[in-house]
């Protein structure tokens, strides 16, 4: 009887320990987390040198299947091929245990800030055009128009830099041909004299 009691004590301790571990596992089971740095996905844990299966890139999303003291067991689905891969991630500060909803909310906030900044920059650019060329010319440039008499600088402001510039210098002055994908613009002494576009 005396020999049985220590054995029973050990069994009880194991059951209590296992139950505690299972409760800890249930807290993170099927929870999706976002990887905030490049990390290795290993084939096993609790060994001296686990083998890396793949490297999960920054912003990869994985589903937690289980949790141990130092590792998460996770499943990763490749967004391009749809292939599934399961393995272990070392618990480090590179893994943020936030929900995918929180991550999406953060991304939306970043996108909104970027959009506001883009609109602000565009408004500042348009204002600089009005100040530089006047309301009428600036409005036509903003609408990406080409017209006779505009300068080379105005052309570039309107439709961007050309793919190529063919330049001829003579006694009459400087003649330039601005070559675009579907348009040729001819400039004499910094003024547009004609242009040719391809129609389909």
Question: How are the strands of the biggest sheet laid out side by side?
Answer: 6-5-4-1-7
Distance between the termini: 99 Å
Proportion in β-strands: 25-35%
Q: Cα-atom Rg, whole angstroms?
A: 33 Å
Give the CATH level 1 class of the largest domain: Mainly Beta
The number of distinct helices, counting runs of at least 4 residues, comes to 4
The overall average pLDDT, rounded, is 76
Following the backbone from N to C, one meets helices and strands in this order, namely HEEEEEEEHHHEEEE
SSE topology sketch:
Layout: H1 4-28, E1 31-35, E2 39-42, E3 52-56, E4 61-67, E5 71-77, E6 84-90, E7 95-96, H2 100-133, H3 135-142, H4 152-159, E8 164-170, E9 173-179, E10 183-188, E11 191-197
Antiparallel strand pairs: 1-4, 1-7, 2-3, 4-5, 5-6, 8-9, 9-10, 10-11
Structure description:
With 200 residues, the protein is of the alpha+beta class. It has 2 domains: 95 residues, SH3 Domains (SH3 type barrels, Roll), CATH 2.30.30.40; 55 residues, no CATH class. 38% of the residues lie in helices and 32% in strands. The chain contains 4 helices and 11 strands, in the order H-E-E-E-E-E-E-E-H-H-H-E-E-E-E. The strands form 3 sheets. The chain has a 5-stranded antiparallel β-sheet. Helix 2 crosses helix 3. The chain is elongated and about 85 Å long.
């Amino acid at each position: 009887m005396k020999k049985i009691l220590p054995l029973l004590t050990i069994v009880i301790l194991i059951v209590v320990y296992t139950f505690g571990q299972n409760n800890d596992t249930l807290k993170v089971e099927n929870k999706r987390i976002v990887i905030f740095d490049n990390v290795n996905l290993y084939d096993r844990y609790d060994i001296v040198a686990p083998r890396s299966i793949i490297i999960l890139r920054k912003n990869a999303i994985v589903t937690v299947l289980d949790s141990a003291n130092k590792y998460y067991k996770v499943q990763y689905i490749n967004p391009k091929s749809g292939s599934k891969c399961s393995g272990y991630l070392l618990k480090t500060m590179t893994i943020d245990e936030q929900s995918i909803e929180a991550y999406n909310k953060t991304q939306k906030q970043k996108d909104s800030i970027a959009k506001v900044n883009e609109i602000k920059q565009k408004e500042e650019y348009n204002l600089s055009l009005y100040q530089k060329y006047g309301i009428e010319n600036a409005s036509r440039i903003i609408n990406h128009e080409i017209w006779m008499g505009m300068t080379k600088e105005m052309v570039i402001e309107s439709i961007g830099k050309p793919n190529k510039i063919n330049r001829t210098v003579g006694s009459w002055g400087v003649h330039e041909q601005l070559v675009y994908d579907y348009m040729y613009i001819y400039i004499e002494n910094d003024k547009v004299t004609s242009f040719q576009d391809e129609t389909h």
